[in-house]
From TrEMBL:
The lineage of its organism: Eukaryota, Metazoa, Ecdysozoa, Arthropoda, Hexapoda. InterPro entries: Retrotrans_Pao (IPR008042). It holds the Pfam family Peptidase_A17. This is Uncharacterized protein.
C-alpha cells in the first residue's frame, strides 16, 4: 500500500503548493491526477497482505531492508526471511514512505 499512499501524499502536497481557497476549483492537471488515482483504488480489492508473521522456533532468520528515493519522495520496506526444515519463507514486516 505504501506506493499508493505515496501518490496520494504527493498529490495533496501539490494541492497545498497551489494555495487554493476552499471554494476555488483545482487545476485541470491535478484533477486528472486525482481521477486517475481514484480509478486505481479499485485495484486494491485484489491485493492481500498477510499481517501475521509465523516463525518456527528452529528457523534461521534474516532481516532484509530495501529503500529507494526520488526528488519527490522516499520509501523503504523490511522483510523477514526464515529458513527451516519446511522451507524458506519471506514475509513483509513493514513499509513506509515520506514526501
Amino acid at each position: 500500500l505504501a506506493p499508493l499512499v505515496t501518490k496520494a501524499k504527493i498529490l495533496l502536497q501539490e494541492l497545498w503548493i497551489q494555495k487554493l481557497d476552499w471554494d476555488e476549483s483545482i487545476p485541470l492537471r491535478l484533477d486528472t491526477s486525482w481521477q486517475n488515482f481514484k480509478a486505481n483504488l479499485l485495484q486494491l480489492s485484489s491485493i492481500s497482505i498477510p499481517r501475521y508473521v509465523n516463525l518456527e522456533s528452529t528457523a534461521i532468520c534474516q532481516i532484509h531492508g530495501f529503500s529507494d528515493a526520488s526528488i519527490r519522495a522516499y520509501g523503504c520496506c523490511i522483510y523477514i526471511r526464515s529458513q527451516s526444515a519446511s522451507g524458506v519463507k519471506c514475509m513483509l514486516l513493514t513499509a513506509k514512505s515520506r514526501v
